[in-house]
Write a structure and sequence with these properties.
528 residues, alpha+beta, Beta-Lactamase, Rossmann fold, 4 domains, nine-stranded mixed β-sheet, six-stranded antiparallel β-sheet, globular, nucleotide-binding, AAA+ ATPase domain-containing protein, P-loop_NTPase, Spore_III_AA_AAA+_ATPase
Length: 528
C-alpha cells in the first residue's frame, strides 16, 4: 500500500522512508489500518504477501506488494528496485499501481509461487501457458523469458485457469473484473484452448507530463508505437486528466476493455471518464458515431483505430468539433502515410498531375504526390520508447515528406534534471535518435509497389471495386526481390519516389535503385 503525505506509518515505530524526493511511503500488505500497523511491527524482517483489496477502505485500489520493513528498504536503496519499475513523484515523473494479486490467483500454485518471490515481479509483462511447454514469464527490458517450473503445462492446468477466468469473448479475450489485466486464448482447430497469454495491466500516473500541453490544446492527438510500448497506458491517463482535472465530458469507446478494464464498472484509473463497451469489434465505428450522437462528449477516446470505417468515423467526429484521442497501428508517421486504409487520418495521399508551366515552376515531374485533405489528427506522437516521444505537426510533416524533405519534429525525453522533468528539443526527422531501433525496423523499401499501387487506389482507402488490390500487389511481390531491396544499396529506404527523384531536376533520370514504374516512364519522357 502506498501511503502518500504521511510522515510515518500507522503504528510503525520507524520513520517512513522518503522515496525520490517528496513521497513518504511504507510498503505493507494493503487491507486496513489495523493490518498495516501490524505488518510494520516486524522490524528487520522481510516477508511476502498478496492482497486482493477486499478490506481496503473505499476499495479505490487493490495492490500487490512485497512486505518490506524500513531496515530492508533502506538497504535496498530505492523502492523501485524491489517493487516498481517506475515509482516517482508528481514532478513530471511516474507512479505505477497494479492489481497483480488478482492475476496471480488465476495461475496454478506452483506457477504462481516463483512470481510471488521474484525480484523482477514489478517488471512482469505477461505469463505464457502453452500446452506441452514449460510456463514462461516475460519481463520488461529482458529479451528472453524465464521458465517458471520444469514440468510442462498440462491440460488440467489450462482447464483450471480457464475456469478461474470465465468466459472468453469472440475475440478470444477475457479480463479480470475490476482490473486492467487481459487474458488471451489460443485455440486449436476444434476450438479447444491450448494456450493462454496473461498480460499484466498497470495504472501509471505521470506519463501525461510528456504531452500535457498537446492534449490541453484541444487538438486531436494520435499516438503511434509498437505493441507493448505503452500507448494504452498513456491514453488511459489522458482520459483521467481530461475528465478530472479539466472537467471535460470524456467518452471512451473501449472495444477490448483494455482502457477501462473488464467488468461493468470501469477501473478507477480512467477517473470520471465514461466508457462505452463494444459487443462486436467490427462495429467499433458505429459505436464511435453513437457516442457523439447520444452522449454529447467533448472528447472521444478510441484505442486501436485499424479499419477504413473507423478512419472515416474519426473524420466525421472531428468535423463535428469533438476532440479525438486515439492510437493506430504503426510505429512512424511514414507508416501511416503508406497505409491506404489509415492514410486519411493524416489527410490522405493522392497522385496529382501538374500542368507544364506548374511543373517547370516547381522543378518537379508532372505527376507528384500531395496531401489531399486536412488531417483528422493535427498532432501525431510517435512513442519510440516509454520515455522518448517524437511529436509531429501533421500538416507540415506530411507535406515535407511528400516533397522529399525532412520535417523538423519535436523530441520529448524524460529528464529529471529539468524543472518539469522533461527535455524538449527540435531536430530534423532523420536526425532523431532511435533508442530501440524502432524506426529502422518500421521503415521498409516497398517503394516500387507503393507507387504502382497508388494508381489503383481510390483516394487513400483502396480501389472501391477491390479493396484488397493494394494488399494483393504487395503480397505478390517475389521473395528474392524483397530480399534484394532490403539488403542491397537501395536499403536506405527512400520513400517518396516521384518527388525525391524529381529533386535533381526535370530532365535528370532518377537512380535505377529507387525508381518505380511511373518514375521510369517520367525519366524516359525527360530524355526525349
Amino acid at each position: 500500500m502506498l501511503l502518500r503525505g504521511l510522515s510515518s506509518c500507522p503504528g510503525c515505530p520507524a520513520r517512513s522512508v522518503a522515496v525520490r524526493n517528496r513521497v513518504s511511503v511504507c510498503v505493507v500488505p494493503a487491507g486496513n489500518a489495523r493490518r498495516a500497523s501490524a505488518a510494520c511491527q516486524y522490524q528487520n524482517q522481510r516477508t511476502q504477501a498478496l492482497d486482493i483489496g477486499q478490506e481496503y477502505a473505499g476499495k479505490v485500489w487493490s495492490y500487490t506488494v512485497a512486505v518490506m520493513t524500513h531496515a530492508v528498504m533502506t538497504q535496498a536503496g530505492t523502492l523501485s528496485d524491489e517493487l516498481q519499475p517506475e515509482l516517482e513523484t508528481d514532478d513530471g515523473t511516474v507512479v505505477v499501481q497494479d492489481d497483480l494479486a488478482e492475476l496471480l490467483t488465476l495461475l496454478p500454485e506452483d506457477i504462481r509461487e516463483p512470481l510471488v518471490n521474484h525480484p523482477q515481479r514489478a517488471s512482469l509483462v505477461e505469463v505464457v501457458l502453452d500446452l506441452g511447454r514449460q510456463p514462461e514469464a516475460r519481463f520488461e527490458g529482458i529479451p528472453a523469458g524465464e521458465y517458471l517450473r520444469q514440468q510442462e503445462v498440462t491440460a488440467a492446468d489450462l482447464e483450471a485457469a480457464v475456469a478461474a477466468v470465465g468466459e472468453f469473448g469472440a475475440d478470444n479475450r477475457a479480463g479480470v473484473p475490476g482490473t486492467l489485466h487481459r487474458i488471451s486464448a489460443i485455440r486449436n482447430r476444434r476450438g479447444a484452448i491450448i494456450g493462454l497469454t496473461c498480460r499484466v495491466g498497470r495504472a501509471v500516473s505521470g506519463h501525461i507530463a510528456m504531452l500535457k500541453d498537446l492534449v490541453e490544446s484541444g487538438h486531436s492527438v494520435l499516438l503511434l508505437g509498437r505493441p507493448g510500448v505503452g500507448k494504452t497506458t498513456v491514453i488511459r491517463e489522458i482520459c483521467r486528466t481530461l475528465a478530472d482535472e479539466y472537467r471535460k465530458r470524456v467518452v471512451i469507446v473501449d472495444t477490448s476493455n483494455e482502457i477501462g478494464g473488464d467488468g461493468d464498472v470501469p477501473h478507477p484509473a480512467i477517473g470520471g471518464a465514461r466508457r462505452m463497451q463494444v459487443a462486436d469489434a467490427l462495429q467499433q465505428h458505429a459505436v464511435m458515431i453513437e457516442a457523439v450522437e447520444n452522449h454529447m462528449p467533448q472528447v472521444v477516446v478510441v484505442d486501436e483505430i485499424g479499419t477504413e470505417a473507423e478512419a472515416l468515423a474519426c473524420r466525421t467526429i472531428a468535423e463535428r468539433g469533438v476532440q479525438l484521442i486515439g492510437t493506430a497501428h504503426g510505429c512512424l508517421l511514414e507508416n501511416l502515410i503508406k497505409n491506404p486504409t489509415l492514410a486519411d487520418l493524416v489527410g490522405g495521399v493522392a497522385a496529382v498531375t501538374l500542368g507544364d508551366e506548374e511543373a517547370r515552376a516547381r522543378g518537379t515531374q508532372k505527376t507528384i504526390l500531395e496531401r489531399k485533405a486536412p488531417p483528422t489528427f493535427p498532432i501525431v506522437v510517435e512513442i519510440r520508447a516509454r520515455n522518448f516521444y517524437v511529436a509531429h505537426w501533421v500538416e507540415d510533416s506530411v507535406d515535407q515528406l511528400l516533397l522529399g524533405r525532412m520535417p523538423v519534429v519535436q523530441v520529448r525525453e524524460r529528464d529529471a534534471s529539468q524543472p518539469l522533468g522533461l527535455r524538449i528539443s527540435e531536430l530534423p526527422y532523420d536526425q532523431v535518435p532511435d533508442p530501440e531501433r524502432t524506426a529502422d525496423l518500421a521503415r521498409n523499401s516497398w517503394d516500387d509497389d507503393y507507387e504502382a499501387a497508388l494508381r489503383d487506389m481510390h483516394g487513400s482507402a483502396g480501389n472501391p471495386s477491390d479493396s484488397w488490390a493494394w494488399a494483393e500487389k504487395i503480397r505478390a511481390r517475389g521473395k528474392d526481390a524483397a530480399l534484394a531491396s532490403a539488403q542491397g544499396p537501395g536499403a536506405s529506404r527512400s520513400f517518396f519516389i516521384a518527388s525525391r527523384s524529381a529533386a535533381a531536376g526535370p530532365n535528370v533520370p532518377p537512380p535505377p535503385s529507387s525508381v518505380g514504374a511511373s518514375g521510369k516512364k517520367a525519366a524516359k519522357k525527360g530524355r526525349r
